[in-house]
């Protein structure tokens, strides 16, 4: 990782590491793992060969524009923070869904000038890496991930509500009226944003807007919302030594339409999605959410590139690929 922002050092993280794993171990090295854009993810290595992972939520570790961060009532507002993490961890743990085990959550900032947590370091590869190397070897993990998704789909929000787990589980009420209304409004905002950034999107603006309104008009009301990760690509699934899937980057966990999850799964798992496919999804929601997802994956990366994100190439590729998909969906 490159960039002008200062990374945390071993001396910075030593007090947090000691509190999490005890004074008998000495922290010998830290490595910031690549890819994080909302929080710092550091591997902690100790003198007895033990390792752990530290999550750090601070402005220096977050490359996004956080103008929407203050409204937890928006299910798609900035999904970053210790409170979101612990609420999501508690919900998944209660459901029996595997995630890296939590060693310490420091909401009092006793060890760093930022919220932080230390979790289990699951050795091995992500599901993305296993699928790339040996798809056949990944088949049992995919089957278990399908079971995980079904368990999450069976978990409804209290009172039928939708929104961030941290909000809904504490009796809060989400803005937006319905999942489809929130997705529609977000898609229209994304269209307006990307239309001024890319001439191809500008030329297709009317086609995009007409398609969103038409697809939204086909959707019937729904009162049942279930647990979704929200960004469950194979890079957000670790594979344990016994082949169990362990979900990471869980701060975006929410009660929402399962179709939103499955549109993202289909996009990210590609030819491997058939192992995760489930019956009974609403085709009208799938069509709207597919277009909205592509639009979001153009607007979000372009917004991130306005700042100093240190790995711009992959973000440009994501935006370009998804713009092409969105244009094809509306025949533009």
List keywords for this structure.
10 strands, Phosphorylase Kinase, domain 1, 14% strand, 332 residues, five-stranded antiparallel sheet, 2 domains, single chain, Aminoglycoside 3'-phosphotransferase, Chain: A, domain 2, 11 helices, alpha+beta, globular
Provide an overview of this structure.
The structure is a single chain. This protein has 332 residues and is an alpha+beta fold. 43% of the residues lie in helices and 14% in strands. It has a 5-stranded antiparallel sheet. α8 packs antiparallel against α10. The longest helix has 22 residues, at 283-304. It is globular.
SSE topology:
Elements: H1 10-21, E1 27-32, E2 40-46, E3 51-57, H2 82-95, E4 102-106, E5 115-120, H3 127-133, H4 135-153, E6 163-164, H5 165-168, H6 179-195, H7 199-203, H8 205-217, E7 226-228, E8 237-239, E9 245-247, E10 254-256, H9 258-269, H10 283-304, H11 312-329
Antiparallel strand pairs: 1-2, 2-3, 3-5, 4-5, 6-10, 7-10, 8-9
Helix pairs in contact: 3-4, 6-8, 6-10, 8-10, 9-10, 10-11
